[in-house]
Design goal:
- The protein is α/β, with parallel strands linked by helices.
- Helix content is about 40%, strand content about 20%.
- The chain contains twelve helices and nine strands.
- Helix 2 crosses helix 3, helix 9 packs across helix 12 and helix 10 packs across helix 11.
- The longest helix is centred in the last third of the chain and has 15 residues.
- The radius of gyration is 22 Å and the shape is elongated.
- The relative contact order is 0.10.
- The model has no long low-confidence stretch (mean pLDDT about 95).
Length: about 290
């Protein structure tokens, strides 16, 4: 059975009485090069354990299982479990875990499933949970690399440079914790049913240390959120909305100047280093 052949897929789904769920964002791959190239990009080898989220009927799972020492796949849709029992039967290094990835301790799960192996994460993520799942994978802090297929627009946002239209708070979050790489695009016709958007595969490689010597990470991201809360406002006005109860505008101007920034700058033009300098200047004033 070819898990990327449309005829085989329809026969498989028909045998199990499966119906696509729009709420779960289910789109199954019908081009074999896609899961193969994603698995290659993941860097999986025999010394690796791979956590997959949303295996669907298992085309990426199979490719990962052929490369990795162990694969653990989390599947929310229980109607897919008997299908996965069939499609993954030849692979004794795969464990399917029924459940919601957003409600699981991913670091604990990786430690439990992959003793002695290097943990990786790899997935074809449903569009509607991309941001929270990526956040959870990054915050788990245990994966050597996170390779995912997501909506192209989100991939561009994650990899965006300061001052571009795609750049935002989530760009900074991902780039603070990881080094993102935009790998390749996947057109809609590679899926059944075909989505209305183009997908893209990215790889996030966690940083060993933060890119800047920050006073406090939580405060750094508080400043970032303030700067992006209202994109049309200047940085000064954004900071005033967040810190105006403790610092007046003149003090905020001083902090911006101390960070080496022009008063009228907007937050979306600042990189990690500039936000770090601004966070230190604000903390100095707050004491």
């Amino acid at each position: 059975m070819d898990l990327c052949n449309e005829k085989d897929i329809r026969a498989l789904l028909g045998r199990h009485g499966f119906r696509f769920s729009k709420s779960m964002g289910q789109n199954f791959l019908i081009e074999g090069w896609v899961p193969r190239d994603i698995a290659d990009a993941s860097g999986a080898g025999e010394d690796c354990g791979v956590l997959e989220i949303g295996p669907g009927i298992g085309p990426l799972t199979v490719q990962l299982a052929r490369r990795a020492g162990k694969v653990a796949a989390i599947e929310l849709d229980r109607s897919l479990l008997p299908i996965l029992d069939e499609t993954l039967a030849p692979y004794d290094n795969v464990t399917v875990i029924p459940g919601d990835a957003m409600k699981l301790d991913l670091a604990a799960l990786a430690a439990e499933q992959f003793p002695g192996l290097t943990p990786l994460a790899c997935a074809n993520l449903p569009y509607n949970i991309t941001t929270p799942v990526l956040t959870a994978l990054i915050e788990a802090g245990c994966f050597r690399a996170i390779t995912v297929m997501i909506q192209r627009e989100v991939a561009l946002r994650i990899c965006a440079a300061p001052g571009t239209a795609d750049y935002g708070a989530f760009s900074l979050f991902c780039q603070y914790h990881t080094v993102p790489e935009f790998l390749f695009e996947v057109p809609p016709e590679c899926f059944l049913p075909a989505p209305k958007v183009t997908s893209a595969v990215i790889r996030l490689t966690p940083r060993d240390t933060p890119p800047q010597d920050l006073v406090d990470e939580a405060f750094f991201f508080r400043v970032v959120r303030a700067a992006f809360a209202q994109r049309r406002k200047t940085l000064l006005n954004g900071l005033n909305s967040a810190f105006g109860d403790r610092l007046d505008k003149e003090q905020l101007r001083q902090a911006i100047a101390a960070a080496g920034l022009p008063e009228g700058v907007r937050g979306e033009r600042l990189g990690i280093g500039e936000f770090a300098a601004l966070a230190r200047a604000l903390q100095n004033l707050l004491g």
